[in-house]
Amino acid sequence: METTLKSRETMHRLCGKGLEIFNEKGYYNTSLDDILTQLSLSKGAFYHHFKSKEDYFISIVQNLIVQKVYALLIEPLNTEENPLPIIVDSLENALEPGKKNEMAYGFMLNDFLTEFNKRNEEISGYLKDILNVWEVNLVSVLKKGKLDGYIARHVDCEGVATYIIASYLGMRSLMMDSSNRQLKYQYVQQLKHYFKSLEPQPVMA
Amino acid sequence: METTLKSRETMHRLCGKGLEIFNEKGYYNTSLDDILTQLSLSKGAFYHHFKSKEDYFISIVQNLIVQKVYALLIEPLNTEENPLPIIVDSLENALEPGKKNEMAYGFMLNDFLTEFNKRNEEISGYLKDILNVWEVNLVSVLKKGKLDGYIARHVDCEGVATYIIASYLGMRSLMMDSSNRQLKYQYVQQLKHYFKSLEPQPVMA
DNA sequence: ATCCGAACCGACTTGCGGGTCGGTCAAGTG
DNA sequence: CACTTGACCGACCCGCAAGTCGGTTCGGAT
């Protein structure tokens, strides 16, 4: 049906622009009209496609945010090599401010998590689910790295995953305005140092 | 003057309760009436003491939050000993959920930073200032630790401070609901590992 | 006793933003 | 051509919360 196509097209435009503006200004600080004006759409159009602002955002989370996290943070982990440099690369890449005109996708998680925490349990839940998936994948790739001899046996993989996630999320609060080159560089350097401490100690001859 | 005393007393009560509730529910999700009801005060009383909600929160930041951060995160750094375990202790202590009936002060910074970022530049500014002071103090104690031989010479103290702050702030996003014992334990453990990599290499005999 | 002004009260105004609803338009369908 | 239906329009409704303002209370100064 052509009608369905049109409909999907509009929903896609709404979700895309919504993510962009919510990411820029925050969910509660963005009115629907802010978005609708930019798309030259009306309230009526919006409520034809979504049953509420909340429902709308959940669509965005499930369609777009999940994808971005997978693409940037989870799929890169799928490797046979030493996982530690792979993780560094994925984090460095995810912290990269929007290439060209795109958004700084890597930043969204911490912002949204904090914004919805204690304000909207349902949305919070979806966001935490994403974090959990990430964590599980990190743990699994770390354990694999241990088996393959890239990581020392004494290492607590769950703890490492937690620490990685915490430091990554926290960088967001620091890089707020200026997508500061310097901060990112410092972060990556220290992450590498930390990772070095996870490597097996070379046996002294 | 007794009048002035009464006035101060009321302002203190307002600030204290305000911090408590803003910390619980967020600034924008808390109405003045939420606070005033609990204190059995009126709008009139409030606007007699503060010129706006924003002005009110700035008072809270400058009177209470600054104090907490100093007490928990900055003053403990004032030591002649090895700074690394001191830093671990201060962070562990700051992540401790409210002892007895007090608030979980250690959590506030990341929440408020994220909430005001891009919504209120002035308040954002005050909060960033606090972070900056913390960072400066961290850097200085790290440099001192380097001089005293507790930290390896190659270490980038600014980078380490950034990384410490990032991981601390990020823990907040993870510890949202459950002030999860496990998470905190993992964090402290990994922090210690990381710090070990900053120590000077013992010279092999 | 009188007055002043600080502290406080609470009904009201105002603006914002989510959500509603009756309507228009155009693309099928029979 | 008559009729339906999906996509969309935009004026309106309504609740919420910040901020206003005229009034009240009360301690202390003259």
UniProtKB/TrEMBL annotation, chains A, B:
Domain HTH tetR-type stretches: 8-68
Keywords carried by this UniProt record: DNA-binding, Transcription, Transcription regulation
Xref: PROSITE patterns: HTH_TETR_2
GO MF term list: DNA binding
The keyword Isomerase is annotated on this UniProt entry: no
The entry's DNA-binding region: 31-50
InterPro entries for the chain: Homeodomain-like_sf, HTH_TetR, Tet_transcr_reg_TetR-rel_C_sf
Any Pfam family: TetR_N
PANTHER family on file: HTH-TYPE TRANSCRIPTIONAL REPRESSOR NEMR, TRANSCRIPTIONAL REGULATORY PROTEIN
Protein name, UniProt field: TetR family transcriptional regulator
